[in-house]
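Data availability (excerpt). The following record was deposited with the supplementary files.
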Amino acid sequence: MSFNTFGHMFRVTTYGESHGVAIGCVVDGCPPGIPIDAAEIQTFLERRRPGQSRYTTQRQEPDAVRILSGVFQDAAGQQVTTGTPIALQIDNVDQRSKDYGDIATKFRPGHADYTYTEKYGIRDYRGGGRSSARETATRVAAGAIARKVLDGISIKGALIQIGPHKIDRARWDWASVETNPFFCPDPVAAAEWATYLDGIRKSGSSVGAIIEVVAENVPVGWGAPLYGKLDQDLASAMMSINAVKGVEIGDGFAAAELTGEANADEMRMGNDGRPLFLSNHAGGILGGLATGQPIVVRFAVKPTSSILKPRRTIDLQGQEADIVTKGRHDPCVGIRAVPVGEAMMALVLADHMLRHRAQIPAAIAPRTVPQPQLSSLAEPGLIKPGAKTT
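Predicted structure:
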């Protein structure tokens, strides 16, 4: 199986299966001299770790990360990156492969079972093997390193919709994201979601979700005008996450309903002598290049395909059958996709930072106008189509 690596100058290769001995990744291209230790990486893995509430899979994985290479103690005794490949490993300790014995010869609807079998002639039916969302833990670990490269850039994610239930953006509070099991910025919606998802979980079903990720303080010009567009790479990265079926930047599909004058992010000069954007419909990217405004990305996650309700399918012999997927599964896989989306944002931005540095050395970088700013808006994701701020 090819294509287990993404990124250009900041490259990540992941390995391992859901029920294998371990999962892990190799980060290549990380600059030397960056302080990093396993405890820092662990803080991000804790946010994604399963079994922390009744709304996620009850698989009990500590997700303890080990740094196998790429770091060394500097003269001050601090562990820093050496510029060589950084290998990270996470052992699997709570596999229950017996839960999947009944589906070894059947294709689970909504899963990659059929396509894997047709393409490779073999598949690991234990939890989905390589196609399992378990692989995303390695992306979160690699994303923790990318965040260290992106010193000064803020990356935050939130769940903004579960099933048909959306947040009220007027109640958006980033502080609430870490105080509820849904990464929800609306405390009222979070309480309502708890009741709703309890019903979904007890019925043996699942539901989809929408995640929003915002990056702030990204310098103007990161990206490329044609085949290395920043929004292109972000869309590709988010689509690579398990169960993601749609991505939008800024207003996204809502922009199709706007007129040209409503959609344009008009500009004025601010009191501090920097350009001031009056809106952010473009989501912080124009012509494939960062504008300096907050970068806003959303992605939609489909309902978890592994459910307890009987579904119609066929088996390896082409016989019609019914299937029930046993085991421990997320009633809404979108919940734990929030830290994964943040990690993918960090990985893409770290890659583009190094690409930008290679193309435009700081000593000769053209600076015709000062760095732009966004007007005093409480939350970058709150700009509505056609709205202007003052």
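Summary of structural features: Residues 375-390 have pLDDT under 50 and may be disordered.
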